[in-house]
# Entry
Amino acid sequence: MVGLKSDEYYEIIGRINELENIVNNLKLENRDNIGEVNDDMEDIKESKISKNEAISQVKQILDPILKSKDFFVRKAILKNGEGSGILLESNDKLKNKKIMLKKSKDYAKQYNFDDMFKFSGWFTASDSELNEYDGYIFVVYKNSIPTYFVFNRSEMEQVLEHKKKDSAGKYHFYLAEDKQGLYFDHRDGGLHLTGNVDAWHFIEEVVSEE
# Structure
């Protein structure tokens, strides 16, 4: 991909975003429900769309797709060990699947990516966090309009082969749409992800796994 920023630029942006997270966590430290801090922090970044609204939007998409497979979507309960995303629930509880759901605002203008991209979201995740889930949905909101990047475990493993961890052991995902309407993770040299946008069949594959 032509015109990508340098690795050093991405490293600086990552540090700035981490500092923003620290500030947001300090703002939230007096909240009663400590388990919801990460969700609330994301709500600060994209104040117009709450985590619950994002889950509701995904549920409206996935419920009709998964109905024939006898699965339905609900918000995961962190204290029950279900993660902080959504749970694909079956009558047979042993078949339940955990799906990571992360959301981001558009950072393209804020960090001078808007010459290349219509929008650019930012996400982080560690190996231990990623290994907890059976599938992954990353949502980038621009003007409250969502774009969904969807992965099963196999797809995510392929993505991670091209990524580097930061000093804290986290991967950074910069998920974006370019000016030609193609989709990328433009961190770590750039990775074409057009095939992962609205790729709900990857979630169907998750529930079909034994």
Notes: The chain has one domain: 7-208. The chain has six helices and nine strands.
